[in-house]
TrEMBL record:
It holds the Pfam family MFS_1. It is a multi-pass membrane protein. Belongs to the major facilitator superfamily. Monocarboxylate porter (TC 2.A.1.13) family. GO terms for molecular function: lactate:proton symporter activity. It comes from Lates japonicus. Gene3D superfamilies: MFS general substrate transporter like domains. This is Monocarboxylate transporter 4.
Amino acid sequence: MGGAVVDNGPPGVKAPDGGWGWAVLAGCFVITGFSYAFPKAVSVFFKELIRDFDVRYSDTAWISSILLAMLYGTGPLCSVLVNRFGCRPVMMVGGLFASLGMILASFATNIVSIYLCTGVITGLGLALNFQPSLIMLNRYFSQKRPLANGLAAAGSPVALCCLSPLGQTLQYHFGWRGGFLVLGGLLLNCCACGALMRPLLPSRKSQELEESTPMAAEEERKPQPMKKLLDFSVVKDRGFIIYTIAASTMVLGLFVPPVFVVSYAKDLHYEDTKSALLLTILGVVDMFARPASGLIAGMKCIRPKSVYLFSFAMIFNGCTDIIGSQATDYQGLVVFCIFFGMSYGMVGALQFEVLMAIVGTEKFSSAIGLVLLMEAVAVLVGPPGAGRLLDATDNYMYVFLLAGCEVTLSAFVLALGNFLCISRKQEDPEAKMEMAMTASEREDLNRVVEVEGDGEGKEEPKGGENGKVSGVKAGEEVMMVKEMAEEAGENTETSL
């Protein structure tokens, strides 16, 4: 992850897969909930904004669109800041921005001020929390990472089920200005979540061994090379390119059904409360599907092929949209929401897990920034494009068919691209060991071996002692690398 705080320490620090990692997971759960649910939750204030500012519904809809655009489109900026300052300070500053935006919006006198405060400032604050939280989760979990991703992703439906009723209650008692003020205070919890993102440090024993080598003092005096703020070398990875194309295509249709399903029910002449219940059904199923998908993805027989599980989830989602387009009554829409919630939860739990598996820990912060930037374009094109199709045809069937075809196409792009374009030949143990080491780890290991050779070549007691210490250090480093190689061989999540 370039220069991120979590990677600035000495190499060889293993993911604890627990311990403080569960606190990091709790913080990531809250951040994911705020990031994905907040753009939808603020929509409960739209009617009051329309009345107070004398604007149209399409004008207020830009608030959620700008929020999502900032969340996705500022990915590269977040990557640069994380690689420069680290995850914890970026998240805490992001929490202040998210809160400040809502507080300033409560004093707005026109809709443009709402765009700037709620859309841009709060959206930027949420983006500065969302991406670093995923990076830290990836650093703290390895063996249990699929489960951790599934549990963190469950924050989205849980927060949506809580924030929407809360927003309605605040609007009823305090109006939209009081509601924005309270929500601004609530977003200060992002700072507390950021404080949980403690950088991983090596054990005391490994630190003592590192300091005991004669090269340690020389290494401290040596100027450190400047680290890349945004690592564009990831675009040379064919697996990353295939994933980015597939994910961008998927996002074109993924968010369309939740946006239009309530209107679809109303178009079939069902009352408002009954129509809104469809989203609740979808959210509850989604809430349980995400951690369940994480458990399945973490199974030893499934994890090496998680890219194909992700492809299946996308095909499941796309086929659900296509079949759901034929629904003609409320019961059909309920069945659609149940299956869509299952497939939507699977996609949500697996999308970043697969990306982590493709690019690895070192390049994940840059990779996710570039992926989110590409998805930002799709997010801005997908739902509005579906709306134009609805205006032209006046038939929801075509909207759902288009969304289903886009998501299904992305599944085939990912699965066939992985199967046909990526070399899957088995690697010998030495190659696996080399893959398990980063460049800095190889450099440190070679340096220690050189020190060991120098120590053995000298006859003085001091030299022999240094050689002995270096030998112990080298032995422990080799054992650590072997463990990493075995772990990489057993838990390779994808052939990408």
